[in-house]
Amino acid sequence: MILRWTTTRLSAALAAALPAALALAACGDNASTSQVNFAINGDRFEAETPEAKPAEPTPEHSAAPEEPTGPGHVALNLLIGDVDPATDPNFARIPDKYIGGTRVWGHKDAVEAFVRMAEGAAANGYKLTVVSAFRSFDDQKQIWEDKWTGKTLVEKSKLSNTIPDPDARAKKILEYSSMPGTSRHHWGTDFDLNGLSNAYFSTRDGKRVYDWLTEHAAEYGFCQVYTAKGEERPTGYEEEKWHWSYVPVASWYLKQYPVDVGYERLTGFEGSDAAKDIDVIKNYVQGINPACK
Predict the structure, then answer these.
(1) What structural domains and CATH numbers belong to the chain?
(2) Is 112 exposed, middle or buried (0-12, 13-18, 19+ CB in 10 A)?
(3) 12, 35, 128, 247: least buried by Cβ within 10 Å?
(4) Residue 3 and residue 5: Cα distance in Å, rounded?
(5) How far apart are CA 159 and CA 177, in angstroms?
(6) Residue 219 CB contacts under 8 Å (≥ 6 apart), including other chains
(7) What is the largest CA-CA distance in the chain?
(8) 247-260 and 108-123 helices cross at what angle (nearest 10)?
(9) What ranges make up the beta strands (E) of the chain?
(10) Which pLDDT belongs to residue 194?
(11) Average pLDDT, integer, range 200-206
(12) pLDDT band at 70; cut points 50, 70, 90
């Protein structure tokens, strides 16, 4: 508050009235910012209060659109499985009661979501176990090269003998196994559940589990990435009813993969020259169920 007055002489009456006038001015609205001008006219106070300026309208701000969320930029080593899950903070160990194989690590968010899904399934009389989870580049290299060299038979045959053409041999292995550096299992977001053959999911127990998953897995963020091939999914691996992916994280990795991983990265294993020839990134890495993208 600013008080202004002009005078050359105060009478006793005016001097006595001045404190009361000051108090009155201080009691007005917005006293902290009020300005009152006092003038003395004879033996009277005359007070002038400048008209208050109208309050400036508060500009209306429209809500800013929400930015998409995700795990941010994914390091290249995480995209191609060059990581030790036991020491990397992105990974967590699957609880023992849900382990059904030797692969026990997954992306921490995927593991948390899977546990919730397994608990939901158990509450309804279904048991979910993880047969396979995270695989490193070296893990996938061994699987791939064992099939490539004939150490592991494919349809009871040594592919090194029956399919000498590198591109054709690679396509045969790619029916169910990924090239090193291209597997979604590198990300820790994908789990093989309860079995590793479509035949199992045609049995009584397998069908019950599969039916429950197809109806409820999406509630927990999971999706069957390799559905039957057809018009919606013309390329990629054959159907895998056991392979379920945690979409909130995997979709982010999938978007970044073709940006950061080129064919120059897909080396260091037998048959790697076929990767570019058959466009494995477009046809296999990206050749998934559209609902899981």
Answers:
(1) 2-48 (no CATH), 76-292 (3.30.1380.10)
(2) middle
(3) 12
(4) 7
(5) 14
(6) 117, 120
(7) 124
(8) 150
(9) 2-6, 35-41, 44-48, 91-93, 105-107, 130-132, 190-193, 222-224, 243-246
(10) 98
(11) 97
(12) low
